[in-house]
Amino acid sequence: MSEEKTPYLLAYEREKAARISAEKLLDEKTREVQSSIDMISHQFDNLMQQKKELEYLLNIARLAQDSGLLSAAIK
């Protein structure tokens, strides 16, 4: 004899399927967010390295300019 599904059992199965679907979506979005965070972190590190390089070049340019002024003052 086959049992008919009660409204409560149907609601339970529907909610269970919805919860599983929501958990899969949450996992997917979590991976996307983590990937975005990793990419932003990598870009930030690259920008900080570029900033250091530009500051170094700026200091060299200042030294060269100061050296030029000093040598002009000596002459």
Order of helices and strands: H
Mean pLDDT: 91
Radius of gyration (Å)? 32 Å
DSSP strand content: under 5%
Biggest sheet statistics: none
Which oligomeric state applies? single chain
How many helix segments?
Answer: 1
Structural class: mainly alpha
The amount of helix comes to over 70%
Poorly predicted residue ranges: none
C-alpha geometry:
rod-shaped
The overall strand count is: 0
Through-space gap between termini: 112 Å
Question: What are the salient characteristics of this protein?
Answer:
mainly alpha; 75 residues
Report what the structure shows.
This protein has 75 residues and is mostly helical. The chain has one helix at 7-74. The radius of gyration is 32 Å and the shape is rod-shaped.
Topology:
Blueprint: H1 7-74
Describe, in short, the structure shown.
With 75 residues, this protein is mainly α. The chain contains 1 helix and no strands. It starts with 6 loop residues before the first helix and ends with a helix.
